[in-house]
Amino acid sequence: MIKKFLFICLVLFISQLSILAEENKPYWDFQKTANLQQTIDETGFKILNANKLNKLIVFSLNKKRSFVREKLTWVKREVIIYDKDLIHAQNDDELAAVLAREVSYSMKTYDGSIGGIISALQVKMSPKKYELVADRRAVDYMVKAGYNPLGLITYITKSSPQKKQDKISSHNLTSKRLAFIYEYIFTKYPYFLVNNAYIDNYYYQNFLLNSIENRRKLEIKIKTKDKGKTDYE
After folding, report:
1. Rounded distance, CA 39 to CA 36, Å?
2. How far are the Cα atoms of 170, 215, 226, 228 from residue 222, in angstroms, in the given order?
3. Cα-flanking dihedrals φ and ψ of residue 77, to 5°?
4. What would the DSSP string read from start to end of the chain?
5. How far is it, in rounded angstroms, from Cα 125 to Cα 118?
6. What is the pLDDT of residues 76-130, one digit of tens each?
7. Angle at 136 between CA 133 and CA 140, to 5 degrees
8. Cα dihedral 23, 29, 30, 34 sign
9. What tens digit of pLDDT does each residue of 134-158 get?
10. Alpha-carbon distance 160 to 155, whole Å?
């Protein structure tokens, strides 16, 4: 009876240890995390150096989003990449797309007076406007750093849900963002569309399928030499 009791106690003790070990297990394996952080750093600094962005910006890998921490990045000039951001970044171009957009926002905090605080507030007050600005700058940053800007299209196609409307939203419709990105690439970097390395990519094909009407509007704009802003949907 005593042996049986001791055996049960031993089993319970071992099971408790395993539970504690599981609770204390890091979210990411350390070596895997270190390798991922290195990849993020190398890609981020490649973008900074290739574009001659002579402002200090650091890149940090984090476990989960925090509202307070995200707000602090505007002060600290820190690009924080979360696990949710990386799920859909499945090649070098798409990772560069994620970082290039955030670099654009971080660079804005160096503009203007009061240490860039006014510029940062402008972004917060007009998020839809600067969302499109960040997309265009990301394209420029990617191209200069040797990445294919179509990776920005495939990343957004996979990661940004389409809302029902954007009239009272702080963000543009995903379809609208993609249309403006496509127009910018078409106008400034046509090489990537003529020599399209993404033509057989499932996500790029889905973008083409869902952007027929917007691309038709772009075609009309080009034919009529209309220099105004296209009313994409």
Report:
1. 5
2. 30, 11, 7, 11
3. 55, 50
4. -HHHHHHHHHHHHHHHHHHHHHHTS-SS-HHHHHHHHHHHHHHHHHHHHHTT--S--EEEEESS--HHHHHHHHHHTEEEEEHHHHTT--SHHHHHHHHHHHHHHHHHTTSSSGGGHHHHHHHHHSHHHHHHHHHHHHHHHHHHTT--THHHHHHHHHHSPPPS--SSSSS--HHHHHHHHHHHHHHH-THHHHT-TTTT-HHHHHHHHHTHHHHHHHHHHHHHT--S-----
5. 10
6. 688 988 888 889 999 999 999 999 999 998 888 887 666 666 666 766 667 778 8
7. 135
8. negative
9. 999 999 999 999 999 999 999 999 9
10. 8
Round to whole Å and give the CA distance between 153 and 4: 64
How many residues make up the chain in this entry? 233
pLDDT digit string, tens, across residues 32-88: 888 899 999 999 999 999 999 999 999 998 866 554 444 445 556 889 888 888 899
Query: Across-strand partners of 86?
Result: none
Beta bridge partners of 59: 79
